[in-house]
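S.,

Sequence below, as promised.
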Amino acid sequence: MIISINPMPSLKEFQLLMENTDIFLNNDASNRPQYYKKRSGSPLEDDVVKALNHCAKGTPFENSIIKVSGQKFPDIVAAKYYGVEVKSTKENHWTSTGSSIMETTRLSDVERIYMTFGKLGGDPVEFKSRPYEECLYGIAVTHMPRYLIDMRLKKGETIFDKIGIKYDELRQMDNPIAPVSRYYRSKLKPGESLWWTGDSADESVSATIRLWKNIPKEEKKRYTIYGCASFPEIFGGNYDRYALWLTSQGIVDPHIRDQFSAGGQEKMTMPNGSVIKLPAVYRRVKNNIDYFIYVIVQQNNLNSNDLSYIDSKKLNNKIIAWCNAVSLESPIEYSTSMDALCMLFFNKSYLDIISSLNQ
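The prediction came back faster than expected:
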């Protein structure tokens, strides 16, 4: 990278450079619109570099403007400290999909960035430049979360205004996806879910799609048990939230009910010696107690893979809370469900467990 021999130019000087570059590009585009209609990507970046160099003559930016090679952000650097990201559309509007919100390829020396946007469709062909953070209104997801560009945004309409975090603060976070996903999750309507992020800030999601029938047996077991432990309404026959979550993991199951109801009813001997019949989903608990406890530990941040080091009373309270949530959803009588689940986890009735926890 070429380092300018001039003192660091001011932001006002950079703003003036960008204003003059817009004037130059728009004048050139009015004289030869067909040339620009055919430009995009790297060739258009070359055009912007030429315009910047022309407008930089006699300014502190002269001889300091370069196009950055490789997949770096931004596309152009001026006086080492300033950058220009070039985007365009072949349509007759001022919107497009921008760069990744992760900015993992950002040049470390560049602090202030402008967006130069070419509207190459319609008449006239036109260029507009603005501070980068002032023209980003939302997030779209391709193979990664990317900013959405609108060069006509008004003050207070950026994605940073919406989530309440400044651009420079967000870009320096270890996990900038977390506050963005929280914002979009807060806007979800009933029955909706974010397909591109999990329920926790650090949960990864799959980039591929698979059919449930092609999933290995042990992996199916893990997803089913995780579903039971995470979505109590499954015990009442409501699979909507689980289906949305499973889709976020890249799995489609057109017969999702079968994961939980296949195999008929489950017989269980109760503390009083009576035998009852429970929905088949209770068998998923009975046959996978250890994994259920592991999921509950992880979901409640009890932070240990060794159960012997976990506060047993705290863990038991979490298990009771889960049993309660399930029993409220289950079609069988509440007390029957609670007794059955407590028998599976503690080999005691619900009332006996409550009594021991209160001692």
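Confidence is low (pLDDT under 50) at residues 1-6, 199-204, 304-309.

Coffee later?
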